[in-house]
Amino acid sequence: MSEAKTLPTAADVAAFLDAKAGPARRADCDQLIALMREVTGCEPVMWGPSIVGFGQYHYRYESGREGDSPLLGFSPRAADLSIYLLAGSDAPEPASLLQRLGKHKMGKACLYVKRLADIDVGVLTQLMRASAAEMKRRYP
Predict the structure, then answer these.
(1) DSSP bridge pairs for 112
(2) Measured distance CA(134)–CA(68) in Å, rounded
(3) Which of 1, 4, 57, 83 has its Cβ near the most Cβ atoms within 10 Å?
(4) Beta strands in the chain (DSSP E)
(5) So what's the pLDDT on residue 103?
(6) Tens-digit pLDDT string for the chain (140 aa)
(7) Residue 90 class from Cβ within 10 Å (0-12 exposed, 13-18 middle, 19+ buried)?
């Protein structure tokens, strides 16, 4: 089995965001930090070189692959904010939440938004709460 590459590090979250995000994107990152801190009760930690993560769970798949991952996380990518959560077809919340979220794209466990002003932050908070609770349920 290959070793997981995205692990918690001691890198400084603020320094990472200062280097990667302009003023508007940085304001969105600060808002995501506040929301994810509130939802998880955890402080932000760098996971690998580019993901700001909150909390942690240990997973083990039937294949035998296992590792650790943050409950919630985000990364300020060049085109979008990538928000890591369980949403979409494998998520515990109703699909109607995604319909009410606003302008976004959805991957398997990644929500892409250009800016937080494009979405309903209350709906995002509901998605984050449902995702964190489901990951805790699946991987106690």
Answers:
(1) 82, 105
(2) 15
(3) 83
(4) 45-47, 51-54, 57-60, 66-69, 72-76, 81-84, 105-106, 110-113
(5) 96
(6) 455 678 999 999 999 999 998 999 999 999 999 999 999 999 999 999 999 999 999 988 888 888 899 999 999 999 999 999 986 555 656 677 888 999 999 887 899 999 999 999 999 999 999 889 988 988 88
(7) exposed
Question: pTM of the predicted model, to two decimals?
Answer: 0.90
Residues 29 and 77: their CA atoms lie apart, in Å, by: 11
Sign for the pseudo-dihedral over CA of 131, 133, 137, 140: positive
Q: Which of 73, 47, 46 is nearest to 131 (CA)?
A: 73
User: What are the φ/ψ torsions at residue 29 (nearest 5 degrees)?
Assistant: -65, -40
What's the longest Cα–Cα distance across the chain?
44
Q: What is the C-alpha separation between 84 and 63, in angstroms, rounded?
A: 23
DSSP state for residue 50 in the 8-state scheme: T
DSSP code per residue over 9-48: ----HHHHHHHH--HHHHHHHHHHHHHHHHHH----EEET
So what's the pLDDT on residue 9?
Answer: 95
